[in-house]
Specification:
With 201 residues, the chain is α+β, with helices and mostly antiparallel strands. It has 5 helices and 5 strands; from the N terminus they run ββαβββαααα. It folds into 2 domains: 2-64, no CATH class; 75-200. It has a 5-stranded mixed sheet.
Length: 201
Amino acid sequence: MIIVDGTQSEKNISTFANLEEILKDVMQDEKMENRVVTDVFVNNEAFSEIYPHQAEDIESSEITSVEVRSMPLSEMAVEMSAEMGKVAQMMEHGARQVSRLFRQAEDTDALELFQDLLDVTRDFMGMISELRSKYATGNLEDFAEKTESFSDLLSEMGDVLENEDWILLADLLEYEFIPQCEDWRIISENLHVQVSGLLAQ
């Protein structure tokens, strides 16, 4: 049994070799255009790949049911833009912790947390740029300037990290990174208003 957004498909699981083929077939349906998959359940259990193409290793003979849930891309954009302000606040909070740990000479803990902070920051910048380019209006120049300034700061912090100057890194986090996170929180909240307004029309 294959169910997509509450509707049972006429297609049979046994006609496919594995789970990956089933999911590809579902995604190729025109009803899935401009939609994004949010959940996949296999045999009534939530499924997400632990490694690339794991779905290919699950043979159809092992599967009794597949349920796919999705939502419109536009709804996803509204939900994601709503979360971006919270992510900016998390980045600010994380930067405070890293700075404090460096000042207390707890370098190992600080470096571990700093790496997590960089990963979150990269994801945040990628996502906000994507949402901005697709849905937002307003001052593109100002956005580009802030993005460039933030990128320059991240590059500078990378150089300081290589030189192992932990106090300078703490200073950059405290006096430059944190204020920019506050700017990004405001930008994120404005972006959410724009995305919501645009898609409500």
